[in-house]
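Notes from hallway chat w/ T.B., transcribed later so I don't forget. T.B. wanted the structure written out for a chain they're using in a teaching module, and asked if we could keep both sequence and structure tokens in one place. Agreed to drop them here.
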Amino acid sequence: MNPTLDGEKKTSLQIWPNVQDNIVIATLNSAPSLSVDGFARLLCKNGGRANKTHVSALRNALIQLYRGAAQKRLTARAAARQIRSAQQALSSFVKALEHLNNVGPPRQRGLQSAFGSPVDDFKGTDESNEFHLLCRQLRLDAIPLMLRLSRAIDAETAKPKATKSGERKKRLRILVEALVDWWTVVTGKLPAPCVYAKRLEGYPAMVIDRQGEFIALARALFCEIDQFKVSEVTSTVTNVHEDYLKRAKTATKPAH
């Protein structure tokens, strides 16, 4: 059974900045058999058996998940360090324009340069030369770039921060959150991982592993098709689940 998504062939050529996203999408689109195919049963009603249609629907959902996550990362607010660097560049732009302006004679700087050489410059102390004309043109060429950069910074800082620290969310975190959203819609429940711990006498219990159907799906997708480690996926799933529980608890807490 080859669950290639015929309807996805044309749009699957879209290229995302992260090459790994493109590889995963291509694999989901064309691989003859994958471990994630077994989870097509989630789309069956009344415990029915999954068929080619269910597998294709599952893969299409996962492709859309990857695309949505890639788009979210692409348009999300830039990291704080990126904005700081752009602001420093803007400051350098302003200084560069000032220096280029100062290349000209005193009476041919700023707005005065629009009127050309002064008519009373009998001694030629304020006349222009080739070097000044070149620097003036460079200044005129640079002004639109500076304005574009300024507008870009304003637009970026107007976006909401992804985290309190101003740093961008990691790729795996966004993918897991997207998978959780899909899972809750399909199954109607949170992906609560089962904790397997070992208790030694006199010591606190030590978590050995976390298991469950959602973790199995996440590992099949993010470890076998993508390139994340099992420990990374397990840790991220746990963190996302705990955050969902905290938000749910806060939402249901009565107001005083």
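Follow-up for T.B.: Residues 20 and 227 are 8 Å apart (CA to CA). Might be a good example for the class.
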